[in-house]
Specification:
Blueprint: H1 2-18, E1 22-31, E2 36-44, E3 57-61, H2 70-73, H3 77-87, E4 94-98, H4 117-132, E5 142-147, H5 149-160, E6 167-171, H6 180-190, H7 196-206, H8 208-213, E7 224-230, H9 236-249, E8 254-258, H10 264-282
Parallel strand pairs: 3-4, 3-5, 5-6, 6-7, 7-8
Antiparallel strand pairs: 1-2, 2-4
Helix pairs in contact: 3-10, 6-7
């Protein structure tokens, strides 16, 4: 009898371990667009390996200086997401964390068309992961979030493709050039061969303010927005201007200013609220 209970205890332990979440942070996808292999990390929820269901997905973008492991190592994405799912504040989801820091840095297509990361993201990375993993490939079950440079990617991707994302959560985000002169300075630093026309096109594609100011009426409610930036953050101005522009255009959004700066402490505290916010769209009411 003693051995029987011991067996049950061991089986229970193995079952719990089998149902734990998993993170793989050194996965790769071959890119023809970028002519290289690109890395990404993925979080699989606790019941992924023991179920046959499909899951909603969050694309979670890192900041400058980090790579696909940033949210895993410093953002503690596994621990925070596990707790949110266990508490019922977040629905089980898959989280995809791409690397935007290999060789060149950033989520945008550059002004001269020689680096097309955004094209890679939508035409290669997204189809790859949504085919390889049991992901619900519908707008309602797809969200995007990111910090700093990744917040800039969040703004751009959700504004460029409102048909693909139900929610977008830029954190302490780069908002793109605030005006055309700022765009000229930014682009010329990176590539002195860029023409005035290329710079203007880049500005219109990468400035969140420009896109919001020119947003058609039909897109105003296409994406649920959650914008969060610390009161001591050096990117506070751009995000505040985006908030004001959205208010003027009557674009529904949540805007949070909390105590803090441009730090992982701030973003770790942001993540549970992000998970809860995007889960509101994932849930069936």
């Amino acid at each position: 009898m003693k051995n029987f209970f011991l067996l049950i205890a061991v089986m229970g332990t193995h079952l719990l371990l089998a149902q734990g979440s998993k993170v793989f942070d050194n996965l790769t996808v071959q890119s023809k667009i970028l002519n290289m292999e690109r890395k990404y990390a993925i979080y699989l929820p606790p019941d992924y390996e023991t179920s046959s269901r499909s899951y909603p997905v969050l694309y979670l973008l890192h900041g400058a200086g980090d790579d696909q492991t940033g949210w895993v190592q410093f953002g503690e994405v596994q621990n925070i997401t596990d707790k949110a799912i266990a508490a019922g504040t977040a629905t089980p989801m898959i989280i995809v964390m791409p690397d935007a820091n290999t060789g060149r840095r950033g989520y945008a297509n550059n002004a001269t068309g020689t680096w097309l990361y955004e094209d890679f993201f939508f035409k290669e990375l997204m189809p790859h992961v949504e085919k390889k993993y049991r992901i619900k490939a519908e707008k309602r079950f797809r969200a995007i979030a990111g910090l700093s440079m990744g917040g800039g990617g969040t703004y751009a991707y959700a504004l460029h493709h409102p048909e693909l994302f139900s929610s977008a959560c830029p954190l302490s985000a780069v908002t793109g050039p605030l005006n055309l002169e700022a765009a000229k300075m930014q682009v010329k630093r990176a590539d002195s061969t860029a023409t005035d026309l290329q710079i203007e096109t880049y500005y219109k594609q990468q400035s969140a303010l420009y896109i919001i100011d020119n947003m058609p009426e039909t897109q105003k409610k296409a994406v649920r927005w959650y914008i969060d930036c610390g009161d001591d953050d050096f990117l506070y101005e751009g995000n505040s201007l985006v908030h004001i522009a959205m208010r003027k255009k009557e674009i529904p959004h949540e805007f949070r200013i909390r105590n803090g700066g441009h730090t992982w402490t701030y973003w770790r505290e942001s993540l549970p609220d992000v998970l809860a916010f995007i889960s509101q769209a994932f849930h069936q009411y």
